[in-house]
Amino acid sequence: MARAPHPALERRCTSHLSVPPRLCPAVMASARGPLGDLGCELPQQGSSGASLPPCQVTEEDLTANPGLATLLQGLAGHMDASGLSTGLARQLQQVQRELQLQRVAWLRWECLHRLLQEALLKADTGSAPRDKKFLETLERCLRLGELRLIVGLGPAPCAASPILLGLEVSDLQELLPPSQDLALLRECLPLDLEEWLQHRALALLSYYWPESDGAGAAERSAQLGMLAEVLVAEQRRLREARVRRRDLIGLLERQRAAYGQALEQCRGLLCRLAQEYRLGTQAELDQSNAQYLETKCSAMLLKARDGPEVRARWTSKVKEGHRSLHPQQL
After folding, report:
1. Is there a single domain that holds both residue 133 and residue 201?
2. What is the DSSP string of 255-303?
3. How many CB atoms lie within 10 A of CB 81?
4. Which of 153, 178, 208 is the last residue before a domain boundary?
5. What would the pLDDT profile of 27-47 be if each residue is shown by its tens digit?
6. Could you tell me the residue range of the domain that residue 157 belongs to?
7. What is the mean pLDDT of the chain?
8. If pLDDT is split at 50, 70 and 90, which confidence band does 51 have?
9. Residues 237, 202: one domain?
């Protein structure tokens, strides 16, 4: 049965983060923080490697605002890549570690609780009277424990919330099974739990290594001992893969921010080159073409004007030579 987070843990999270209680879930859910969309990578003095989150700060912005680069460098020394301040990031890591410990402790009890519930659901109706009495006592104790949590009589009750129906712990203790049944439950429950856990562990082994079904008992016990190490290594690998994915996502965001700036710089460079080398040279080329056409027209006009006089002074031999070379022109 799923249980709500412990009130003391929520109060501790709120005190560590120094924010109002209604804002604590939002802060815990977002790792980017209020400055998650500001900042850029700047060279730092030293080897701290601090950097601001990606942003759309261009070289023109830094030139137009001389104090902006100094401000960003000062912020980079007090912020991490996610946008949180370094002090708040350390506090958040500490709270996350404590929360992880609380989750592990809760998960242990949750596994035992679900295991006992499954044992009650799978109980055989034709069991021996002793086993039936044991299961009835177990079910009654479980229900009383759940009722104690529901009415607000848990191990750490909240003083602000009233106790449901005005019940006390003594009222629930009166509903407990007889002492001899409780003694039988305490005696048999550890052995039964060990047997149920062994059965679940073998089922997990069969799921993870199906080829182990045909092995002997000794070999399966050895494989079961190795399974915990294999699962821990697999969990570590998945955790490292998540960290690597988060780093790659941050790198992708930085590259996206730099890509737009690079495209803008390339566009400006192309416009400048086109202005200087294409449009500037075109005027000179047009002027040269105009001079060439003007000279050619002058030559053609001169040839057309002086051509008859020159041909009139040609001798017969010259005319024969021109006629043989240019029969179309004479």
Report:
1. yes
2. HHHHHHHHHHHHHHHHHHHIIIIIIHHHHHHHHHHHHHHHHHHHHHHHH
3. 23
4. 208
5. 333 333 333 333 344 433 333
6. 125-208
7. 74
8. low
9. no
Is residue 282 included in any domain, yes or no? yes
Q: Residue 68: is its pLDDT beyond 70?
A: yes
Per-residue pLDDT band for 20 (boundaries 50, 70, 90) equals very low
Instruction: Look up tokens 């043989």; give the residue.
Output: 324
Q: What is the pTM of this model?
A: 0.45
Q: Could you tell me the end-to-end alpha-carbon distance of the chain, in angstroms, rounded to an integer?
A: 116
Please state, for a pLDDT cut of 90, what percent of the chain lies above it. Answer: 11
List, in order, residues 6 or more apart from 10 with CB less than 8 Å away: 21, 24
Max Cα–Cα distance, the chain, nearest Å: 153
Position 190 in a domain: yes
Q: State which of 208, 241, 256 marks the end of a domain.
A: 208
* Secondary structure (3-state) at 22: helix
**How far is the C-alpha of 109 from the C-alpha of 111, rounded, in Å?**
5
Residue 143, SS3 per DSSP: helix
229 and 314 co-located in one domain: yes
